[in-house]
C-alpha cells in the first residue's frame, strides 16, 4: 500500500512540475550581441559599440572571481570610477572623472593624471605588435553624460562616447559609441 502511495505522490509531483512555466528573462538582458537598454534602476548593465561592434560587460559568476562591473563613487568628493569587463574577450573599458555632483554632461579630464588613469580601453587578448590599450587624449572626444543620479538609492546611470588612441601604435584610434551604463554603487 505504501508503495502505491509513494508512486502516486511522486507521479503527481512530476506531472505538477512538468506543468510549471519557466519565466524567460528579457531577451536583450543577457544577449552579448545587443546593447542593454538605458535604465535608471541600478541593474548593473554596461555596454557600448567599440569600432562599430557591440560590446557588453560580462563575467561568468565565480566565487571571488572578476565582476562584470566594478568601481566607486564618492558623493562628497564627486570622484567617479567605473570599469566594465568582458571576460570572454579579455577586454575592459574604464570611465572616470572628478567633480560629479549632478546630472549633466562631463568631459573626462586628461591633464595631471597618471598614465594608468588615462586608459579608457584595454584588450589583453590581442597582440599585433602594439600594446592592447587605448588612452584618453586631450584633443579627442571623451564625453560622459550622467542622465540619472540617485544618492539615496545609490544609483548612477549615464551614456558615454569617446575616441581613444593607442600610444604604441600612432594612428590606431578606438571609437566608442552609444555607451550606456546603469550602476548601483
Automatic annotation (TrEMBL):
<protein>
    <recommendedName>
        <fullName>Lipoprotein</fullName>
    </recommendedName>
</protein>
Amino acid at each position: 500500500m505504501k508503495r502505491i502511495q509513494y508512486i502516486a505522490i511522486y507521479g503527481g509531483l512530476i506531472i505538477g512540475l512538468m506543468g510549471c512555466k519557466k519565466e524567460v528573462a528579457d531577451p536583450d538582458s543577457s544577449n552579448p550581441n545587443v546593447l542593454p537598454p538605458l535604465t535608471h534602476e541600478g541593474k548593473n548593465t554596461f555596454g557600448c559599440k567599440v569600432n562599430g561592434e557591440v560590446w557588453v560587460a560580462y563575467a561568468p559568476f565565480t566565487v571571488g572571481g572578476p565582476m562584470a562591473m566594478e568601481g566607486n563613487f564618492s558623493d562628497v568628493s564627486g570622484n567617479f570610477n567605473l570599469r566594465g569587463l568582458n571576460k570572454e574577450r579579455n577586454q575592459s573599458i574604464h570611465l572616470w572623472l572628478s567633480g560629479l555632483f549632478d546630472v549633466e554632461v562631463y568631459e573626462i579630464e586628461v591633464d595631471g593624471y597618471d598614465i594608468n588613469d588615462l586608459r579608457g580601453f584595454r584588450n589583453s587578448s590581442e597582440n599585433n605588435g602594439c600594446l592592447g590599450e587605448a588612452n584618453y587624449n586631450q584633443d579627442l572626444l571623451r564625453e560622459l553624460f550622467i542622465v540619472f543620479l540617485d544618492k539615496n538609492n545609490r544609483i548612477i546611470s549615464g551614456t558615454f562616447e569617446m575616441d581613444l588612441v593607442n600610444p604604441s601604435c600612432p594612428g590606431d584610434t578606438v571609437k566608442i559609441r552609444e555607451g550606456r551604463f546603469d550602476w548601483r554603487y
